[in-house]
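User: My instructor asked us to take a sequence, write out its structure as tokens, and then describe one feature of it. I'm not sure where to start. Here is the sequence I was given:
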Amino acid sequence: KFFVGYSTTFTYVLTNKINIQGKLSYKFDTDNMWGQELPASVRQGQKLTGMTSGQASFPLVGSYFDFAQYGESRAWISSLFPYTSKIVDDICIIKSMYTEAINHDPALTFFQTGSQQGNRPSMGSWLSYGLGSENKNLPAFTVLLSRGSGNGQGVYSKLWSNGFLDSIHQGVQFSKGEDPVLYLSDPSGLSRDDRRKMLDKVSELNNLSYDEFGDPEISTKIQQYEMAYRMQTAVPDVTDLSKEPDDIVKLYGPDCLVPGTFAANCLLARKLSENGVRFVQLYHQGWDQHGQLPSQMTGQAKDTDQASAALITDLKQRGLLDETLVIWGGEFGRTNYSQGKLEKDNYGRDHHPRCFSIWMAGGGVKPGIVYGESDDFGYNIVKDPVHVHDFQATVLNQLGIDHEKLVYKHLGRRYRLTDVSGKVVRDILT
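Assistant: Let's start with the prediction itself. The structure tokens for your sequence are:
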């Protein structure tokens, strides 16, 4: 099983646009060199965004928050994440991720689809195509959105698009309202029997069209109508969090009973996974601190820390963690230098694709290890680099799929999630 946080349950818990600098990647030297100029020999003329490329100075800025080592692994964790610090021996921290994309939309699209351009199948869609669904009454791929109080770029439906695959493989977005899946409820005054009769007639017409035209999308629409009918019964039950026992509510925190929060989505992700949903993706927006980082980051961490750790603990105590892959991170990192004016209590960080961190847990990943290493400035990778395509290849491998064989021919070309590259990172696997 697979949840996806890379913007968030990457559990893909994929959380959106996370500023990892100052959370999982800690360097003593940057604390000691606060305000000093980043050496040109470190930056090496690498591409910057338009927001900082015109800066005359690139002053180094260490973490505003304290760090300490935890667990038998002695992993460094920020004081922003007290709950995560308690599960460090259950997670694998990769400190050497890198990507070519330097802005949010192409970077997030690349992480989810293997291409910086749109109109490609997302990771969840590829998995639905390759593995199918475990529960005929629920979709194989679901998406849960939440937002913090901080700045954040938009999250768009192309991130869970089926691309050129059949539309049955598109991710189904759940909402926080009375109807978790929009347009699923029967119209007022229409009985269940009447709805069934209507769908049967629509199916007859669609089958006639399929016999005449042979368009596979017609067959897909028939499947979607039938799935929606079955979901009318299954979705209300699986999305009802009010029946969770007190110990589970305490574990995830009181926000887990507030629809649309990250905590509620983590708890819902566990329930969806238990009920056979193969890929659950969480997006939590608000991690784009180009300024006011110290004040905004506290709230963002508080939104996600307890529930993220609770998800790992909950899966583990139910005996589900070994068969569930949980991933938490963002589409790139942030700079070790300040964007704009550097003040002790007010500064920001720009985008940094050259080196960033994520964590993974369960699903055959070694627990309690830290993989990869950056230079003394936390700017460049010096050991065990992991490209986004390597990450994607590793995820597919843990789900029993050879990334080079999961292909789809479209417009005369054979496409893969990992395009023409990617290698499995076997050193982090059990």
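For the description part of your assignment, you could build on this observation: Residues 184-234 form one domain. Try explaining in your own words what that tells you about the chain.
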